[in-house]
Amino acid sequence: MTPMTSEQILAEIREANLSYLMLAQSLIRADREQALFRLGISEDNAAMIAALTPAQMMKIAASATLLCRMRSDDEMVWGLLTSHGKLPANDSVSRLHASILMAGRHQEAA
Distance between CA atoms of 88 and 45, rounded to whole angstroms? Predict the structure, then answer.
């Protein structure tokens, strides 16, 4: 497998940014409270994203900086999400536990 070039990486970032903005805007318009939780964003950010025009989204997405980020920097949450060392039967319990932990962090950030 050949490594990606800088141009390919930037193209992937732009595509991810546009997909993220489109998804975020759709979630915000469908269920604002659920979107705030799922996206881990503030009410102010949600209002701004909801008001973006398609042209504005394209311009913002063209940035070389990835707009979304990993919200889980906690080793325990990653362990629960990946069920590392867990039996498959505990998968739903592990994911629920991870969701509860991340929800608590969302409340702390808000």
Answer: 37
Nearest to 67 by CA among 106, 35, 24: 24
| CATH class label, 1-66 | mainly alpha
**Residue where the block lists tokens 């998804």:** 23
pLDDT tens by residue, 17-69: 999 999 999 999 999 999 998 898 999 999 999 999 999 999 999 999 999 88
d(CA 102, CA 81): 11
**Segments of the chain assigned to CATH 1.10.4000.10:** 1-66
Taking residue 98's Cβ as centre, other Cβ atoms within 10 Å add up to 20
Task: Give me the helices (H) in the chain, please.
Answer: 6-30, 32-39, 43-51, 54-61, 75-82, 91-109
CA distance 28 to 47: 8
pTM of the model: 0.69
**Separation of alpha carbons 54 and 21, rounded Å:** 10
